Amino acid sequence: MPRKLNHAERKEHIVEAAFDVIYYHGFENTSLRDIAKQAGLSLGSVQHFFPRQRDIYAFAMEIIFQRFEERMQKVVQVDQDAYENAVRMVKQIVQVHTDVERMENNIWVKFTLMATMNPEYHELQENYRKVNLRFAEDVLRMLYEHGHITNHISIKDKAHSLIIFVTGLVFESVIYAHLYNDQVVEDKIKEYLRNICQ
């Protein structure tokens, strides 16, 4: 007899199904019915956890950011140089190491584009932008405090530039996936950070 999933596990199961459908068909061609079918559940079961499509999209993006933060915690090593830690941290946004990471990046790009055209998602989109900016500020502050950035800089201004670079690299790695493996991404990040650290 299959094990019964608890509330949190059921929600994650539904979101994993949503990831699959969104990845292959995009947000605009995804319905709760499609997600329910992919999850092997009735539409009513899915609506019990996610009454509106917006609810499942918001939760899906929350899961992606949660995974990103968990990976971030794992890559920072206290005994390592701050520059190397910064490279590893930025790589957690431009994820190309595994198929799952590539899928999450693809979904994030699709969500960003969909949210731009749909006012219902503007607040959520803006919240994620703030999270990214705080992350960029943390990376730059770490480099500054450990002597890698020697010039006086505006952390806020440089954080905006770093996020523009990272967002561009994410989009490139999704659109031209065949050109971006782990080493290419790392080289691009190192080149960018070296320019900041001069």
By secondary-structure content and strand pairing, the structural class works out as: mainly alpha
Number of strands: 0
Per CATH, the superfamily of the largest domain is: Tetracycline Repressor, domain 2
The biggest beta sheet reads: none
End-to-end C-alpha gap: 62 Å
The level of helicity is over 70%
Number of distinct helices: 9
Uncertain ranges: none
Overall number of domains: 2
General shape: elongated
Order of helices and strands: HHHHHHHHH
Radius of gyration: 19 Å
- Overall CATH architecture of the largest domain: Orthogonal Bundle
CATH topology name of the largest domain: Tetracycline Repressor, domain 2
Strand content: under 5%
- Name of the CATH first level of the largest domain: Mainly Alpha
Rounded mean pLDDT score? 87
Task: Please explain how this structure is put together.
The protein has 9 helices and no strands. It folds into 2 domains: 1-51, Arc Repressor Mutant, subunit A, CATH 1.10.10; 55-197, Tetracycline Repressor, domain 2. The longest helix has 24 residues, at 122-145. α1 packs across α2 (32-39) and α8 runs antiparallel to α9 (182-197). The model has no long low-confidence stretch (mean pLDDT 87). The protein starts with 6 loop residues before the first helix and ends with a helix. By secondary structure, it is mostly helical.
Strand and helix layout:
Layout (H helix, E strand, L loop, with lengths): L6 H19 L6 H8 L3 H7 L3 H23 L6 H10 L7 H19 L4 H24 L9 H21 L6 H16 L1
